[in-house]
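Students often ask why we bother encoding 3D structure as a string. The short answer is that it lets us treat folding as translation between two languages. Here is a chain of 274 residues written in the first language.
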Amino acid sequence: MSDVPDSFISHLIEMRDRLLRAVIAVVVIFICLFPWAQDLYALLAKPLLAALPKGGQMIATEVTTPFFVPVKVTMMTAFLLAMPWVFYQAWAFVAPGLYQHEKRIGVPLVVASVILFLLGMAFAYFLVFPIVFGFIVGVAPEGVAVMTDIGKYLDFVMTLFMAFGITFEVPVAVVLLVKMGMVSIAKLREIRPYVVVGAFVIGAIFTPPDVISQFMLAIPLWILYELGIIVASMITRPKPADSDDYTPMSASDMDEEFDRIEAGQSEIKPHDSK
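And here it is in the second language, the structure alphabet:
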């Protein structure tokens, strides 16, 4: 019985070590990037500043905002750069408890998750932001100067980054659901209309009120869902027809079996009476 607590404590110690290594990596990268914090924020604010009229600028409504907002941007950048190492630490902690076939599919899924999340953020930055900010500035009433607070701007872009990053994870989620046996490929194809409707609902919730940005979230979500189905179909092997796996009897098979049992009992009864 003492082995169980010892094993649990050893797992906690390993988890602490892995978490500490991930945090140290983020902190080290943050320290290295800190001298360029203002430049990183200027890069993040570039899509909005490019959409503002000539002479337009952003404002800070709180005393500490000009300092803390660039620091937050630098921390976010450090985490993104350290993400492969962070995911590796998580994988190294989980991998010893997995079967060999789970490890084979786990590594590609972890790598794909990181790449797809970064692609989602890049899609938002290079394609969505210019359209969204151009729309917002374009619909401003005459005589109204668009001067966004830098803190509110950071919250806004972080929301879009998370929305598009998670949206680009849809193929990974679809493949995981299929490989875990929680849903079949046929079922995923069957619920396609509901997924399309849900994609546009999500687009309406997490994007500004213009129709273009809503479509720019909903359409990729739908396409990535279809991509997940294709990938899951390619890596999922259909079971052979002559497989030895147990298959439950259907209702008609059970009825036929009961009829055979009753027929056999009726033949035995006359012999027993003699």
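Translate back mentally: Residues 241-245 have pLDDT under 50 and may be disordered. Keep this in mind for the problem set.
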